[in-house]
Amino acid sequence: MKALAFDLGAGSGRAVLGWIEEGRIVIQEVHRFSNEPVQVGGRLHWDILRLYHEIKQGIRSAWRAADGQIGSIGIDSWAVDFGLIGRNGELLANPYHYRDSHTANAIEEVLAVVPETEVFARSGIQFLPFNTLYQLHALKRDHNPALEQAEHLLMIPDLLRYFLTGEMHSEFTNATTTQAFNPTTGKWDERLLSAVGVNSAIMLPPVQPGTEVGRLSEAVTRELGVAAIPLIAVGEHDTASAVAGVPALQPSFAYLSCGTWSLMGTEVKEPVLSEQAQALNFTNEGGVYGTYRLLKNIMGLWLQEESKRSWEKEAGTKLSYSDLLGRAEQAEPFRSLIDPDDLRFLNPSDMPAEIAAYCRETGQPVPASDGEIIRCILESLALKYRFVFEKTQALSGAVYEGLHMVGGGIQNEMLCRFTAGALGKPVWAGPAEGSVLGNLAVQFIASGEVADITEARKLIGESFDIKVYEPEASARWNEQYGLWKKIAGL
Ligand SMILES: C[C@H](O)[C@H](O)[C@@H](O)C(=O)CO
């Protein structure tokens, strides 16, 4: 039997069949689709019904490709966003996109009610303006009718699973990204939810990854002409699946999940709720099989994606990444650097102009050409990776021999090279399908084909190419690291 994984990212989604053949994992992409947010007036929304339609297309294609031999389905997606269900069981409104501006001042407004130390002690989660807790605060503040009528809150994968099965379940790894879940009690945190005026009854008690969470409903099986395939709650936060899919053989390892976002950290048995972790704004998101992901969000390749989008809009024509990276390769090294996590880069109207303004304001040469901007982004990301790598070691007390880099971002070889140079340590890049493979791994373990996550990670490492980048020009990177920390104020 084959397993079917859906991996929904901020820009695109894919449906991938996976199975084990002669001791190796084999994957086959059967459907790929774009994920285009929709601006309505001043609000930014996800087109959730379009995504659901694409998931059904994916099941149809997979059923044909697997000759009906599909044993289970798992869905993972980006975090924090959600849909609200009314008393008639229907979706009350299109989910907000986490880059929508309605949460702009929400952190300050909530911390005026519950002190920062208490929020961190209760949730263990980093302070980012789009966390679900602040989205709920903003909806309540703005008297949002959907929240007023809501009977249930479902995160994106929970919601899509509900559409497929008719059953409502909340999944643990994604629940922890809300900043309203308490890892110490293992329950939704009443104090935090009541502080934003939300009745905790709308939050369902989360199930652990690996749990069977319903089957395709009769209506769906009839519509698609398929069997009532069971759904497995995988690490439904895509980063949780990416970490599950890291081909690490050692128990203590450092990873970087690299896509629109860069998520860097390590895997721990207990959440790290120390003052230092809070001061460094690290997070403890739930992981698979009784683990936590001690990590930090880094703005990531969003900076590059948005710059390309601006230039394409200006030029009225498509640009290729290979041309852009080719020009970045020719650009002068370390000419100008930024802190990629300055919140001005969360959703500016013109990313290249925002980067230029940052450099101007910090007294640096202003990058003008697209090559200079891309080089500035990639060098700055690599330096930020070094900073977070060092802080991860400080918080976990471990010393890592190198860094596992997974996700679509590893196709950016320049970034992999710069990361090894900046860290002064080897980078083991691969697999690119990080989240998909972690999603499949949990399904293989649920079906008993694979014993546990250690075996799954070994199998992934043996089934997919891992490219090794050894550090180059470390002395130059060390020198620049000092300068960059001054610019970034770190
Ligand atoms: C908001 C982001 O989606 C989240 O922090 C990140 O972990 C993610 O899910 C990346 O896909």
TrEMBL record:
Keyword ATP-binding applies: yes
SUPFAM superfamilies: Actin-like ATPase domain (SSF53067)
MF (Gene Ontology): ATP binding; rhamnulokinase activity
Domain Carbohydrate kinase FGGY C-terminal: 254-446
GO BP annotations, alphabetical order: rhamnose catabolic process
Record-annotated Carbohydrate kinase FGGY N-terminal domain positions: 4-245
Keywords for this protein: ATP-binding, Kinase, Nucleotide-binding, Rhamnose metabolism, Transferase
Protein name per UniProt: Rhamnulokinase
Organism: Paenibacillus nasutitermitis
